[in-house]
Amino acid sequence: MAIRGALFDCDGTLIDSMPMWHRVTVELLAAHDVNDPENVFAKTEPLPLHEMCASFCDDFGVDSTEDALFEELMVRVRDAYAHRVELLPGCREFLGDLSAHGVRMAVCSSTSVPEVELALEAQGIRGFFRDVISTGGSVRSKEYPDVWEKGLASLGTAAGETWVFEDAPFGMRSARQAGLHTVCLFSPHGDRDIDECSRLGDILAHGYPELSFALLEDYALPVPGFGSGSDPSPDAAPLRALVVDGSPEPSSAGLVRSLARDADYVIAADAGAMVLREAGVVPDAFCGDCDSVEPTAGDWARSVSRVSYELPREKYATDLAYAIACARNEAARQGRPLALDVTCATGGRPDHALAVMGQLLGAADARPRLVEDGFEARILCPEGADEWGLGGDAKGRTFSLIALRDSIVSESGMRWNLDRRTLPALSDEGVSNVVAEGGAHIHCHEGVVMAFLL
Known about the structure:
- A ten-stranded mixed beta sheet has the order 10-9-8-7-11-12-13-20-15-18, sandwiched between helices. It has a six-stranded parallel beta sheet with strand order 3-2-1-4-5-6, sandwiched between helices. It has a four-stranded antiparallel beta sheet with strand order 14-19-16-17, with no helix packed on it.
- It has three domains: about 5-15 and about 85-220, Rossmann fold, CATH 3.40.50.1000; about 20-85; about 240-454, Rossmann fold, CATH 3.40.50.10240.
- The chain is an alpha/beta fold.
- Helix content is about 35%, strand content about 20%.
- The radius of gyration is 26 Å and the shape is elongated.
- The chain is built from 15 helices and 20 strands.
- The chain starts with a strand and ends with a strand.
- It is an enzyme of class 2 (transferase).
- Keywords: ATP-binding, Kinase, Nucleotide-binding, Transferase.
- It comes from Parafannyhessea umbonata.
- Its EC number is 2.7.6.2.
């Protein structure tokens, strides 16, 4: 589905106010002589504010009333919203990008509406949002999907075409229960678990400069006539995607043309656009931070690609990682399993070559192949492709097998064969074998290995 709606949390997602909330709440609890205010804040953070204040009184011994305590807290919060908190970097620009594409937006917060309105007005972004919705009363805390469902009703958009932007795991979890896509704006203050956030966010971003409407569209927009992005059909043929990366010593144009002929979908990762242009191959998608692609090649790739988005140069993932995600998105849209080929990825930078191995390991389910002019390498594991049968033209060539985890492997048709041999991670026992026969065969029974035909 197209992207038609966006629901934003406020604190920690639009506005860098989580340290403020922590500070003023702990100060309030300390002023009322509550033991271990840090722990009390952690326990009550998911609650709507009135419920939080009621808990302070009922569960933690604050000698006050819910309403009086709430107002005492709000005096501190309003002053901070008006004078001492700021937007997260890049937020205003991202909201403008969504608005320019007609995306309807609302704020769904655990903070009460008047305070959210004050914060949005102070930052000059209130005009982007059609509505401000708060938990409390009949709208349960963000541990439940109530506020997101109310946000959908306000925007008039369907769950499948609406994205939630959150920094809190409990908010993303309930958004998923409501059938919404999720973007995690990972907290810069070190108070969230990145593994948990990665599981709950369809996209994990360390800041708004990593996001754009085009990036979201690549994750969300289906291809007419194909699947809706659910699990691939067991009978569907794999989508063979070719990622052309931007290594300093690229593969030859002839090799790239050969790989592209066998591909269903071609992705240029940054300087990979230069190789594709030279090879006369039009990419289906172009992504990268444009730090190494020549401007003319970048302009060409943007003009001919169906999918195109630029990434920030200061980011937490490589262009190759985004390109592999782009390949996964296309396979999901078409309801097909992914078969991944990568080229132009390892020449001239040994550190990049090692990182590429890590990316292929993470994509082991996509049966990845790394193909360069001098060699071909494959990830073999039971969860993806667990065997590799070498053709007759491999006879006499060097073959190396490196375990990326402790593995059990078999080799036949080699000068030195293995029969369910245990190879410790990164051991050298499988290095520099020779293919002795046509039809040589490698099988990974357990673990993960990278197999090189040189």
